[in-house]
Structure formats: C-alpha cells, structure tokens
Amino acid sequence: MKKKKKLKLKKPRVIIMSGYGLNCEEETKFAFEKAGAKEKVSADIVHINDLIKKPKMLSEYQILAFPGGFSYGDDTGSGKAYANKFKNHLLKELKEFLSRDTLAIGICNGFQIMTNLGILPGALSQNKGGKYLDRWVDLKVTGRSPWLSGIKKISVPIAHGEGCYVIRKKEYKKMSAKGGSASGGKNNGEIALTYTKGDICRFQNLEKNPNGSAYDIAGVNAYNGRVLGLMPHPERAMFVYQSPLWYKNKKGDKSEMGPSLRIFKNAIKYFIK
Amino acid sequence: MISRIYVTPKGKADFINSYLIAHKFSKERIEKIAQALTNPVLENYSINEFPKTEKFSYAIEIGFKPGVTDNAGHTAEETIYDLFHIPSGVGHRDFGCPTPDGTLAVYTSKIFLIHEADRKEAEQIALSLHNPLIERSYIVSRKDLQKNKNLFLEAPRVILEKRVPVINISLDVLDDELVKIGQEGIRDEKGDRRGPLALDLASMKAIQEHFRKLKRNPTDIELESLAQTWSEHCKHTIFANPIDDIHDGLYKTYIKGATNLIRKNKGRRLGGASKNDFCVSVFSDNSGGIVFDKNYLITHKVETHNSPSALDPFGGAITGIVGVNRDTIGFGLGAKPVANVYGFCFGYPEDEQKFFKDKNMTQLMLPPKRIMKGVIKGINVGGNCSGIPTLSGFLKFDDRYRAKPLVFAGTVGIIPRKINGKFLHTKEAKAGDYIVMVGGRVGLDGIHGATFSSVAMDANSPATAVQIGDPITQKKLSDAIVKEARDMGLYNSITDNGAGGLSCSVAEMAKECGGAKVALEKVPLKYPGLCPWEIWISESQERMTLSVPKSKWKKFENLMESRGVEATVIGEFTKAEKCVVKYKGKKIMDIPMDFLHNGLPKHHLYTSPPASLLEPPYSPLSGGNHLPPLIRGGREGLEGMAERPGEIYTKDLENLLGNKNISGFSFVSEQYDHEVQASSVLKPLSGAGRINTDAQIFRPVLDSPKGVVLTSSAYPSYGDISAYNMAACAIDTAVRNIISAGGTLSHLAILDNFCWCSSNDPKRLGQLVGAVKACYDCAVGYGTPFISGKDSMFNDFKGYDERGNPVDISIPPTLLISAISVMPDLYKAVSPEFKKTGDIIYLLGETNDEMGGGEYLKSLGFVGNNTPKVDVKKNMRTYLALEKAIQEGLVSSSLSVTSGGLGIALAKAAVGGMMGCNISLSPIGKTYGVDVKLFSESQGRILVSVPSKNVSAFEKIIKNISFAKLGRVVGGGKVVIMDKSKIVETNVKKLHKIYHKFSNENRN
User: Fold this and answer.
1) Hey, are the CB atoms on A77 and B39 less than 8 Å from each other?
2) Residue A75 is nearest to which of B72, B671, B687, comparing CB atoms?
3) For the stretch B218-232, what's the b/e string if a residue is b when 16 or more beta carbons lie within 10 angstroms of its beta carbon?
4) Buried residues in B239-252 as b, exposed as e (16+ CB within 10 A)
5) Which terminal CB of chain A, N or C, has fewer other CB atoms within 10 Å?
6) A30 contacts in B (CB within 8 Å)?
7) CATH code of residue B953
8) Of these residues, A25, A162, A190, A235, which one is catalytic?
9) Would you say residue B518 lies in a domain?
C-alpha cells in the first residue's frame, strides 16, 4: 500500500450508509468524528435511496462505511437484500470508488453486505450456537491493512446471529499464503483479524471463537487492505468504560480512549500526512 | 402463475427455505430471482424441483397462515423489484396491489427434513415446530415427493367472503340481550357473535340512551368504536372510578396525587419544571418525560402484552416490544428509542400439566416452557432488529403464571427539548390538518385486542387477537420520523396506533383540535374484503397517525416515499366536536366527542379486606432458628429443623442460588444486543463471573458525561401476605438498585405497572387499594415521582384440565416498579461484584426477621406471614450516604440486597468477581437466628466492598446509619461465613456453576 501515491487531502470525507434497517450509522459517524476531531473531520450519513437518486455523490467521498445493523431484518439471509439493492443500482459507482485510492469498511451487517456484494471473499452464516450473541472477544491482527496499522491485538464486542465465517478451503489457502494475494491481485482477499484467547476470554473464561468461524476468522481485507470487513464492532469500544475489564481496574482518567478508536484514526491518517 | 424456489444450505442440511413466487415471470427472470435469493458460498437453489438431499423419511413444510405477516416474503418482493428496476418503495408491497406488470406476492416457508420417522412421529414433530394459530404445516413423505418432484403450488392468500359492510344494531332489546352484546359481541348477518365488546350493562345502557335520544340505531362501527374507547385497556376504569371513600379514584388520588405533591415539594412553578422539579411531561402522553440535561429530555414507558403472549408467545412478545417503541416515537413530536427493558413472569418450565381453553379439550394452552422460549425470542428479534439496546430485565417464576404469563416491555427515549424555538414535548393537531396514517397496512390482525385484554381468557378469546411484528417496517418509519421529518417540522401531532387502532388514535388526537372526519376506504389494506368496522379497530402493527398541515403534505409524502415508508391521507381534523367516519361516501359513524370520551358511566367500586392466608398466624420468634408453620405444600417433619448443623446452611445457600428466581439468566442477556448505539456503561452481565446486574447504566448522548440508570423490581409473593408491603418493597428495591449502581436520588423517577387478577372481586380490589396506598407513601417519602404507568387488571385463565374439570388460574397480583435516574458523571458507576483481595465488606442497613414471602421460605414450601417492611426515613439516610460514598469514589463494589437476602448477595458478589470472602455474621446483631441473618429479605440494605485505604473516609460517611462490618474479600475463591461457628463453607467455582446452571441448560 505504500507504493501508491496518496492524495494529499486535508480532510477526507466519510460516507456512512443507512436505511432499510441498518442501525449503527450514528455511533459509527461519532467514532469517525471523534477520531478525526483534531482534523475536524465530518462524516455524512446517507440513505441508500438518496445515493441511488444521486449516484455521482459517491465520487465526492474518500471513506465508505457500511455500518452494522439488521438490514431487511436478515430476511433471505443477512446482508443479501441490501447488497442486491446496492448492486442493482450502484455497481458502476462502487467500482469507480474502489478504483480510486479510497478506504472502505464493513462492520457486522456491513461486512455481511460487503461479502454479498462480492468485494470481500467468503460469506457469513448462522452462529454455531444458533442464537444471536452479544459478548466481547479478543482479536489478533493478521492482515496488512491501513485500517489496522500499528495494532497487534485488540478487544471489542460482537453482537450478531450470523457471524460464522465460511470460506472455501482453496480460497483460504490463497488468502493465507505468505506475501500472497493481498499485495497482488486487486480483488483477492487476506485474513485481517482472527479470534484469539486474550484478556477478555481469560477474564470471563470464554471460548475464543464465539460463532464457529472457519480458521477463527473475524475479519478479512481486500484491495490491498483498503477494504476491511469485520464482524466485531470497533465503534462500541471507543471509550475505556465499555470494556468488561474497566470496573476491575477502574482509574479516574476520563480522557482515556477505548482501544478501537485507533482503527478510525488510522483511516483518517491514511489521507493526512 | 406460481413458481417455487428452494434454497438449500450446502453441506448436511436438515432444512430448506422455500419461496412461492406468485407472479408470471419468464424462465430467465425466475432464474435471476433465484440467484438473488441465494448466497453461492453457502447455498444452492432449485426451481420447481425439490432439491436432491440426503435420505429422509418425511418433509414438513411450515409456512404462515393466510394474512399473517411474512417479513421474509416482503423482503423477497423488494429484492425482486430492485432486480428488475420496478420503481422501488411503497404501494405494492402486499398482495393485491398492482405493479407495472401485474401483481406480485412472495410467500416463504421452511421445510424440515425428518429422518427415520413414521407419519405419526412426523405429525408429532410438526406440532412442536409450529403454532397452529398463525402457522400451517404440511407433511409429505419422501416417496410422494419423488413422485411429484415439487411441493404444491398454491399461494396462501387471504380470501374473505363478501359480507354486508355495515349493519345497524337495534338496542331496543331486553337487558339480557344488551348483556350478551356486551359480553359476546354483535351478531353478524349470519347470526354469529363477533367477539367481546367487554361493555357491561351500565355502559350498554348509556349507549342505548344516547341513541334513543338521537332516534336511531347505532351502526356496528359505532358500537365497536365505543367499546374500544371505553375499554378497561384504554380508560383504566378501575383506577379512574371512585372506590370506597376515595372519590377521585386511585389514580388521581394516589398515583398522580403523589407526583403532584412531589413536584410541589420540589418547588414546581406554574408553566413548567423548576430547578429541582425534573418532571416535564408526565401522564399526559404516550410516555413520561423528564429532564436529562439542558438540551434533552429522557422518556420512559413500560407496557404489558400478556394475553397475546399466552396465545402466541413469539408474536405477543415481539409486538409488545415493537409496540412500546412506538410509545417513544409517539412521545411529544417523536423521541428516539435508546433502550429497551423487559420483564417476564412465567410458570416453571418443567411444568408439563395440560390445560385447555374449551370443555371439549380441543384448544390446548401452550406449556410454560414453550411460552418462555417464544417470549424470549420475540424480544430478541424485536429489539435486535430495531437497533435499540435491550439492557435491563428480569425473569420470575411462579406456578400461577403458567396459563397467563406476564410480559413487560418498556422503552426509554431521548428527545431534544427544543428545535427551531419550538418545544418538542408538546403537540397539537390543528383543524384542517390531514389525518395521515404512516407505516404498515391494515389487516385482520389484532381485532378486539383492547377489549380482549380487558376480560379473562377463555374459549371465546379471538384468534385474530394475535399479531406478528415487522420490526424493519417500523425501523424505517421510526428513522424517517424521529431522525428527519420531526426536525423539519412537517407535522403538528403524532400518536401511536396501538390498542384500538385508528379508532383510538384518531379519537385521541381529535381531542387536541375538536373533531375528525375519516374516509375509511382510503386506508391501505393488506388484502381486500375487510369491513369498515374491522379497518377502524384493527391493531395491525407498525403504524402511527400524524396530523400533517396541508401545506406540508407534499414534502412529507416525498420524504416518506424516499425512505420506503407508506403514508396515506385518510381524513382531516376538524373543530366540529364530533368524530365522523365515512365509507365510500356514506356516513357510517357520527359520535359527539364528548360522548365518545366522557360518556362512559362511572361505577362506584367497593372493596373488602383480603382473606387472610395466615392461618395460624406466625409471629416472629427471635433467638432460635424457628420456621413459620406450614401454609401449603412443603417439607414434612419440621421438628428436626430447629437445631441445624452448619453444613445445612451451605446446602441451603447453594440450593437457593440455583433457584430460578435468583440464579443468573445470561442466556437471555447475551442474546439481546445491549451494546448497539455504543451506549453501554454498566452492562446486564458484569465481572469475571458474568452475574446479572440489578441496574444498568447507559449513555444516551455520546458527547454528554451523563449516564442514565435503569432498573425494575417486583415481589409478587409478598402480596400473598401484604399487598401494601409488596408495593412498598418494590419501590424501595427499585430506588436502592439505582443508588447502588451510582444513580441520584434527587433525579429519580418511577413507573408503575399493575398486573392484577379478578378485579371485579372486592377482595382483589382491597389488595389493590393497599398496594396503591403504599405507592403514594413511598414515592412521596423518597421524593421519586411517578411519570407513567399502565395496568392490566384481568389476568385470569378460565379453562379445563386434562380430565375436563374446570380450572381457574389467576396470577398473583403483581406490581412492577421501573425506575430511571440520571447520574451527572457516568465514570462514577459502580458494579456489584467483588474486585480486589483485601477489600472490606460492609452490609449497610438493618436486618430484621422478615422472612415471609421470601425465596428461602418459599423454597422450603412456606409462605410465612412477616414480609419485609419499608422504613423510608431510615432507608433514605442509608441511600444518601451511599450516594455520597460513590460520588467520592470510595467504593469498589455495591450490590443491592434483594431476593434471597444477604446470603445470596454474598454469593452473587463472590461469583461476579470470581473471588472468595471471609464473613462473620456476628456484627449484624445477636437476636436473630442464622436463617434470618442469611436469608431475610429486609429492605434498605446494600452489600458494599471498600478498599482498605478508603475505610476511614467511608466510615465517616456511614457513621450515622446502621451498618455491619462483615469481613473481607479473599483470593483463592473460598467462601466462608461464620456465626457462632462456621455455618457456610463453599467455593466460588462451585457457586458459579450453580448460578449459571439454568442458563447453561437453556442456552441452546
């Protein structure tokens, strides 16, 4: 990713999709604005129907976020109907967006949408327990993505019913090959994040992989790491007190930011150097 | 033409998704649709051909009955519109509505593959897979399938036979017939009764008199409309009517009376809140609204959805939660839902007794386990799909909830105080505004819901009373209103379509301007053939009614259309002082507003003292380990229990911790998204051992440091002894739970939900008066105003047992108190579990011999007669001291002592921290027995742990209140409790296992 020439922007513009049951757009916007407070970054929540009306709008943005939620209530399969809508109306604009030096992130339902759009490999199916699950997990960073630069381990919450990552063995091999596809082909993916046994799992005695994901995969990236999809919710770990460990080690420091704000900061830093 | 698309998961699949596409599409188009409905990584599809699967013996198809909301079907329809660029949005979502090339409807079903079973077994399995009230099943053998290669291609359309749209009802009949009309409903043209109006003779006579004066008969829609508006559910007659010498009724005298007095004491000024009076909009709107900070109000409302949940637990619960969300969206000009709360009272899941609604034993009531699973799932789907954190809740079990469960669902909202100089908590429909219905369409769902919940459940309970929620339709509606239209000032008033549907929402809003006229044929329907009265009172979900100025209609309509929300003008608000309804140009209803709202005759209610359960009376004995006499059931051979060796208490404590009324329910908390909106501060599960917290904290405005604290409390079993104490303890516990987590007593409001039984029985009314008086005393005592409330007065089941003998099962009168508080600094929040080795453990408050109605006695088969009592003055000193200690950051952990007493509090704090403790009960006092010290549920007590460096500062704060220094937190996990000798010795790993046993058994 260092090879590419970066746009020397002062302020990247962030577009956060909404509508049809997506529901994490407000806190995702808050996270981007908090992370970009110094640079006075502002993020726009845009309803998919408004984007369909003015598709060219997408070209004005540098960061695209599909936030979490329950688009179409997961009916016919999580992320499927929203992705179909996006594909049927905005495929050309999406391709154009990704051909520029832009960043995109899909969180939870957003990740499910991205796999259904075909811009990230694999698919998400029902949790192995069969039920929706809200808990914290520990993640290990395995991919090279500007979103994750400087992060090795991180703890964040998940909340999903269909978070079991499924990938064909052949494709997995390609993705996990050293120095493999991430740097090469434009649409090839890479494992970005895996579930691991860390602070939270040890504290609450929880299994590392909460949903039965293949190879413990929690997130993947593609397009040289510029496109990241992950099941866990980094926007729900932007304050220290959100961690289950906070009460045990409570300190008075209010300015202390949660671990995952870094992800949003990375995105903004990518454009400002 | 109909096609069927099968979507089969790859690998070993035991189910198949099926989509029946009712529309003429070309082969290529059907292929494209199938591709869009299939994720190629996960699934395969086949068209009009049953997929090749592994061997199975029977396939069971479960689909919805005609007319039942099919959310996945709707999504598939929208996907198809997108695919072929048929203009998206609204207008053709449901069957019968034209698309550019005809009509389209998609019906989904799930096909389960059953291995190695015969037909009979398959039929049994089918029964466990569906609820015949709303779903249909179709069983087909593998052989037959191989022959036909495809399942049937018939769409489950609603076909309503043609009926006379409006009939006139003669009320010139004998009183007997008036009673019958009131109880069983209007006779339709075939002579069948339409279902209960729940109007008593006095009300029927008032209506008779009204129409006699007008010299005409009422139409069916007029009678149905009056029945809805006058229902117990809408008018709360039991709380409104004079009772004994309480002339203004219970609500006005004690509930609203308490709030008015508290506001006066806090220095309320005319025209709004003063510095200390934080109430802004109470009792007048869909939710209660209080000050959050200078920019926002916070609202709260808790509802019940008991009767529907008994019939269809999933549908009842999901419509319960999604319905109460609309009480938030319908507060003022629209508040944004920011937290959901829930509370479930079930029969014991292991109870397998069968009960029937009818004497012929054809209508089987669902068993408690099925109700529990369905209700839990209903809140799951309703809350999770809506993107509202489901934070706070509880489960309670009692045999008497087995036929009619209680399902509480509540929602907290946030709303800016002012936008463009206009206060958002006020609203007023103006004469000349359009009446606009927004959201879902109208079908037969929920006909007679309001009147149905006002009577006991029996064989006449209408099946159409059941509804299924569609949270996504509502989410779209909610976002479009609260996040856009509200701040653009596009409407003057808004309210929810809940009980009574349009008949209630339009009539309510018409009060704001004078009157309304409605053209019912304009209301969009799910399917053709509804009669006008059905359209008027239908409780189809996900609808709001708005008052939109004509000048803003175009803008409003465009906005709604672009958000995929259907909005329709159905009439106009007027100042004509009457509610007029027309159907296809013909006037079918014309009722003066005054009669509609004030015509209901007053009844004077009388009470008699409740029968004493306490024979023979048990007087508190001090000094020994005495137990009260046996009241019902229970252990035999009491003599041996007076002198009990230590290990018995260890067993007792462990058993009690495993009691479903006490143990954890992480399997529920963790399947509810409680972190969406990124607002969670104190979660429903806390600490290394993931114990359930009694209060939860969240941050509704992410750039404000203020936190909102929520809790709820109910002690139904205390009511067996004293309804007064039951209510007092519920309030005390709710207040205490809030303070224990870091909330603020001076900024704390409460809500009441009375769920009663047989409320025409003077004894039950006697209990009610007792409970309501306690509400007044405690609310005024703590200065915590009621801001909203609701009641459900007839939670009785009348049916038959397995042998056809009649049975009556009434719930124990249950008062749920919910509380909401604002804390200035959320970083001061304290969680309940032990934190650090060496921390000093204190019990704040006084322990008394108050075992009656408690979990310990109940577990031994007793009721007792000495419930905990509340000493508001004394407890308040304790709470203020704790509030101060928490504000000064002196406390490591703080846990409100509730059901199961101190013993359980210690066990929970230990399990939560996965740390042990060394405790001595001696400091509590010498006079009581060990069982009292361990298990008495005396109110006003908090278990606190304090780092040793803070001890002197802490003890300075608590020096004027009762407290006992019990011991310290220890590492290694040993839990040891001493009295004169060692009475409990166990370890935290064992306790953890017991505490989570119920959850581990129900997780999958």
Assistant:
1) yes
2) B72
3) bbbbbbbbbbbbbbb
4) bbbbbeebeebbbb
5) C
6) 678, 702-703
7) 3.90.650.10
8) A235
9) no
Burial of B147 (0-12, 13-18, 19+ CB in 10 A): exposed
Cross-chain Cβ contact B79/A80 below 8 Å: yes
User: What pLDDT, in 10s, does the model give residues B354-404?
Assistant: 999 888 888 889 999 999 999 999 999 999 999 999 999 999 999 999 999
pLDDT at A205 over 70: yes
Q: Give residue limits of the domains in chain A.
A: 14-271
Collect all residues of chain A within an 8 Å Cβ-Cβ radius of residue B479: 18-19
Report how far residue B772's alpha carbon sits from residue B595's, in angstroms, rounded to the nearest whole number.
Answer: 30
Residue at B421 is within a domain: no
Check pLDDT > 60 for residue B635: no
User: Does B539 appear as a known binding residue?
Assistant: yes
B93 and chain A in contact, CB less than 8 A: no
- CB-CB contact of A247 with B831 (8 Å): yes
Question: Pick from B148, B165, B186: which residue ends a domain?
Answer: B148
Number of domains making up chain B? 2
Among chain B residues, CA nearest to A108: B676
- pLDDT for the residue B633: 28
When mean pLDDT is compared across B311-320, B410-419, B700-709, the lowest value belongs to: B311-320
For the stretch B522-542, pLDDT in tens is 999 888 888 999 999 998 888
Residue B577 identity: E
Query: Do residues B337 and B392 make contact, with C-beta atoms less than 8 angstroms apart?
Result: no
| Contact call for B76 and A75, based on CB within 8 A | yes
Give the total residue count for chain A: 273
CA-based nearest residue to B905, from B656, B660, B725: B656
Q: Is B336 on the interface with A (CB under 8 A)?
A: no
Helix (H) or strand (E) holding B735: helix B723-741
For residue B88, give the chain A residue with the closest CA.
A49
Q: Per the domain annotation, does B890 fall within a domain?
A: yes
User: Nearest CA to B343 among B289, B397, B298?
Assistant: B397
Q: CB B835 to CB A238 under 8 A? A: no
Are the beta carbons of B43 and B9 closer than 8 angstroms?
Answer: yes
* Residue B499 confidence (pLDDT): 84
**8 Å CB contact of A159 and B673:** yes
Q: Which of B305, B448, B747, B996 is catalytic?
A: B305
Q: Provide the whole-model pTM.
A: 0.93
Determine the pLDDT at residue B491: 97
Interface with chain A: mutation pick from B108, B675, B839, B995, highest number of A CBs within 10 Å: B675
Q: Is the pLDDT of residue A7 over 70?
A: no
From CA B679, how far away is CA A159, in angstroms rounded?
14
pLDDT at B636: 32
Residue A233 annotated in active site? yes
Is CATH 3.30.420.140 the classification given to domain A14-271? no
Residue B466 located in a structural domain: no
Structural element, H or E, at residue B519: strand B515-519
Tens digit of pLDDT for each residue in A43-96?
999 999 999 999 999 999 999 999 999 999 999 999 999 999 999 999 999 999
Percent of chain B with pLDDT over 70: 92
Residue B770 assigned ligand-binding role: no
Range of the domain at B875: 654-696+706-749+825-1002
| Token reading at B402 | 């087995």
d(CA A246, CA B686): 10
Last residue of a domain, one of B148, B177, B198: B148
List chain A residues with CB under 8 Å of B43.
77
Please check the confidence at residue B146 and state whether its pLDDT lies above 90. Answer: no
